[in-house]
Specification:
- The complex is a heterodimer.
- Chain A is α/β, with parallel strands linked by helices.
- Chain A has helices spanning 10-22, 37-44, 62-73, 88-97, 113-124, 132-139, 153-164, 168-175, 179-193, 201-214; strands at residues 2-6, 26-31, 48-52, 78-83, 102-106, 129-130.
- In chain A, strands 2-1-3-4-5-6 form a six-stranded parallel beta sheet, sandwiched between helices.
- The radius of gyration of chain A is 17 Å and the shape is globular.
- The mean pLDDT of chain A is 88.
- By secondary structure, chain B is an alpha+beta fold.
- Chain B is 65% helix and 11% strand.
- Chain B has 18 helices and ten strands.
- Chain B has helices at 2-18, 28-50, 53-72, 79-99, 106-129, 139-142, 153-180, 185-207, 217-251, 253-258, 265-274, 327-332, 335-400, 403-428, 433-438, 440-450, 469-488, 520-528; strands spanning 280-284, 290-291, 297-298, 305-311, 314-321, 455-460, 494-501, 504-511, 532-538, 541-548.
- In chain B, strand 6 (455-460), helix 17 (469-488) and strand 7 (494-501) form a beta-alpha-beta unit.
- The longest helix of chain B has 66 residues, at 335-400.
- Chain B starts with a helix and ends with a strand.
- The chains are: A alpha/beta, B alpha+beta.
- The A-B interface holds A 9, 11-12, 15-16, 18-19, 22, 54, 59-61, 84-90, 93, 107-108, 110-113, 137-138, 141-144, 213-214, 216 and B 377, 380-381, 384-386, 388-389, 391-396, 399, 413, 416-417, 420, 424, 428, 432-434, 436-438, 442-443, 445-446, 448-457, 492-493.
Chain lengths: 216, 549
């Protein structure tokens, strides 16, 4: 996997580069501002661009905007946004702005060596990556009359993995069951929640997260 | 007025009643001359006593227009002199009415000009065809008039008819103008009566040209000037009557205000009394600049006149108005009025102070928010990044460490992670970045995710633009506080309703917990952001309604 790392904090950027190289990932370039993304992507043709969400000049959502622009220009490049904020709203905005092959991870994940590399691999495979903490947050949200009460524990487990952006096959591997079983679980879950069934991973994630977030 | 009316009466009935008394030589003409001279003298007396420009000008119009026919009627003068006198008098009256702008409003000026011009038309036209002042007994003098056309009765009839049409037309114009001016009732009625009389005369003379119902046809002509002049005079003197009324009304200001007669306060009263919607009260402040009655900073309007009210040589207020001269207004500003105005000034100052306090309260809260935001940014750029890096290096070390050492490294990584979590909670709680960046609704949804009790959010502001950041932060803080309070009082849920109604944003946040609450902090915060918070507590829970204009 060939990646480009964009983060305005030099030490962190170097740390990320180091840890990726430790795992044998080809870091083609690293830079400190969102403006250089296009030039670097053109020059190195990376598989994944890793972006910090908060960068100069306004230190707000440059990362999100850069991700959307990059994707518009280069549909073949996956984008992984690292955020210091544990906030579903940003993840949802990213999912809405950047269709497919996009990831939103808490920046702290770089401390867990495998999480980052795993995310890169999944993006490479065409999956969507949503930080598990965010998923557990929206799933664990207190509801007045829980719409999730009708789900079996196994179905809840499947729902969480769907929300994290895993494909049916990946879920099957993770749970140690076959893909057909997962398919029947997802169909059940979507039916019970009244969501439109979609085999397309990205749309599935967006639908589930939005549902979990706004349903009382 | 009296002179004008008397002249008219003399013209109509003079010969019948007074003829013998004034001797055989008495003629209509002489009666008219006396009436005119009397009116002129009266007008001059009024002008002298009144010592006011409007009086003088009004009187001037009357003098010139009445004296001219008087001169014209002097029997021994040659006809050309009489004709010239009438023409010159009329022209001068027109000039005075037209150009002395201080007397009347534009419309009244036009009305006076028109009436004076009608006089000229009437008198001059009649002179051209016949000697109006010596018609019946003019035998010795009529021959002197080079324009005498008595030998052509059909011309006389034609002139009469023309005069009738002109009089009717001018009467109509006068009536319209009178109706359109916002004058006192009696002035309008009197002027309308004069115009109506002129019209009546015109109509009857059309029906019976040169005949008898008004007596001598000459008299019919001579009645026109006094009638029209009466109306003109009424217009001319009217502003002074009004000024007098104004003075009276301004003086009653204090009483009226004390009894609450005016809803709009001093300004409304002055506007009504001065019949001037542009009247404003302005108050100078020590730091320079001016305040209006609501305590807001104001500027002088250079197109308006300002009358300053002083106390102990110090300007305490200025009244802005359209009236060119402020003498009349100032004369009316008695100590009682000054006190009322000064009272108003104190109120304006208090309100200005209050506005400033509100603004300063808002600034304090905003500054606190900004400081918090800056601390958050600094922590993000500093401590958080270093902790992250520390965790990263620890986990790298763990990867290559001895199996016996590894668990210690991983513990250290976990502690680092916890430290980061705590820091994040500390920094973001109360003012999360998502609030500023994605707005209140997104932030409330995120808040609902971490809330210990269910939070139901309903938004009825879909199309509205985002409210100012200060209001968003305030409402977020309120929601946070209500959720915390609800959790403490054992609430089973919190509902948040955001609604926008005709420019007013209302947030209704309620929980179903019961117990004592102290909403002071919340009210302070909402108040500082320029809103209003009403809290009602009952057996079914507590409801907070915050509204922002």
């Amino acid at each position: 996997v060939k990646v480009i790392v964009i983060d305005d904090m030099v030490l962190v950027r170097e740390g990320i580069v180091r840890i990726l190289r430790d795992h044998g990932i080809d870091v083609a370039a690293a830079a400190g501002s969102a403006e250089s993304v296009h030039a670097l992507a053109e020059a190195h043709d990376p598989d994944v661009v890793i972006l910090d969400i908060r960068m100069p000049p306004t230190f707000t959502d440059e990362g999100l905007r850069a991700a959307a622009e990059l994707r518009a220009a280069r549909p073949q490049t996956a984008v992984l946004v690292l955020s210091q904020y544990l906030d579903t709203a940003y993840a949802l905005q990213l999912l809405r702005d950047v269709p497919e092959r996009v990831g939103y991870l808490l920046k702290d994940r770089i401390m867990e060596l495998t999480t980052l590399t795993d995310a890169l691999r999944r993006l490479e495979d065409g999956e969507t990556v949503i930080d598990p903490t965010i998923v557990s947050r929206v799933l664990g949200r207190r509801r007045e009359r829980s719409s999730l009460a009708n789900l079996t524990p196994r179905e809840l487990e499947v729902l969480a993995l769907v929300a994290e952006g895993l494909s049916n096959r990946a879920i099957a591997t993770r749970l140690g069951v076959n893909e057909r079983t997962v398919e029947s679980h997802t169909t059940q879950v979507f039916q019970k929640l009244g969501l439109e069934t979609s085999t397309e991973i990205h749309r599935r994630v967006l639908a589930v997260l939005t549902y979990l977030r706004v349903t009382n | 007025v009296a002179a004008g009316v008397a002249a008219g009466l003399l013209v109509i009935i003079g010969d019948d009643f007074f003829g013998p008394a004034f001797g055989p030589e008495t003629t209509m003409t002489q009666l008219c001359s006396w009436a005119a001279t009397g009116a002129a003298a009266l007008a001059v007396a009024i002008a002298v006593v009144g010592r006011q420009p409007p009086w003088a000008t009004g009187a001037g119009i009357v003098v010139l227009t009445l004296v001219a026919p008087g001169v014209a009627s002097v029997g021994t003068a040659p006809a050309w002199l009489r004709i010239t006198a009438v023409a010159a008098g009329a022209a001068l009256s027109l000039a005075i009415a037209g150009f002395t702008g201080t007397v009347l409003g534009a419309r009244s000026r036009v009305a006076v000009g028109v009436l004076a011009a009608a006089t000229v038309v009437a008198v001059t036209a009649r002179l051209l065809v016949r000697d109006p002042f010596r018609e019946l007994r003019c035998a010795p003098y009529c021959g002197d008039n080079p324009l005498l056309l008595a030998a052509r009765p059909q011309w006389v009839t034609l002139a009469d008819r023309l005069l009738t049409v002109a009089t009717l037309f001018w009467s109509a114009v006068a009536v319209v103008l009178i109706a359109r001016t916002r004058r006192a009732m009696w002035a309008r009625s009197a002027a309308a009566l004069a115009a109506a009389a002129a019209a009546l005369f015109a109509v009857t003379s059309w029906a019976e040209p040169g005949l008898t119902i008004w007596g001598d046809p000459t008299q019919r002509v001579t009645i026109v000037p006094p009638l029209l002049l009466t109306a003109a005079f009424l217009f001319a003197v009217h502003p002074d009557v009004q000024a007098w009324r104004t003075r009276l009304q301004v003086r009653t200001l204090a009483t009226d205000l004390a009894t609450g007669a005016h809803r709009d306060g001093v300004t409304g009263h002055l506007q009504q009394v001065l019949r001037d919607g542009s009247v404003r009260l302005l108050f100078p402040v020590v730091t320079g600049g001016l305040l209006d009655t609501s305590g807001r900073a104001a500027e002088r309007d250079p197109r308006l006149t300002a009358t300053t009210i002083e106390r102990d040589g110090q300007a305490v207020a200025a009244i802005e108005h359209q009236l060119a001269s402020s003498g009349r207004l100032r004369a009316a500003l008695t100590p009682a009025v000054t006190t009322v105005v000064e009272n108003e000034r104190l109120r304006a100052l208090a309100m200005a102070e209050l506005d400033e306090l509100r603004a300063s309260r808002r600034r304090i809260v905003e500054r606190a928010d900004e400081t918090r935001r800056r601390v958050e940014r600094d922590l993000h750029d500093g401590a958080q990044q270093r902790l992250l890096l520390l965790g990263l290096e620890l986990s790298r070390a763990a990867a290559t460490a001895d199996p016996s050492e590894r668990s210690r490294y991983l513990d250290a990584v976990r502690h680092t992670q916890d430290a980061l979590d705590e820091l994040r909670t500390l920094v973001h709680e109360g003012l999360p970045p998502v609030l500023d960046e994605l707005g209140l609704v997104e932030a409330l949804r995120s808040l609902a995710e971490t809330s210990p009790i269910p939070v139901l959010i309903e938004v009825q502001t879909t199309d509205a633009p985002r409210p100012p950041i200060g209001i968003e932060r305030t409402l977020y803080g309120l929601a946070l506080s209500v959720i915390a309070g609800g959790a403490m009082l054992g609430a089973s849920k919190v509902t948040i309703l955001l609604a926008e109604h005709s420019g007013q944003l209302t947030a209704t946040i309620a929980h179903d917990g019961t117990g004592a609450i102290d909403p002071t902090d919340d009210q302070d915060r909402v108040g500082a952001a320029g809103g209003d918070l009403v809290v009602t507590s009952g057996p079914s829970g507590v409801e907070y309604v915050a509204s922002f204009p």
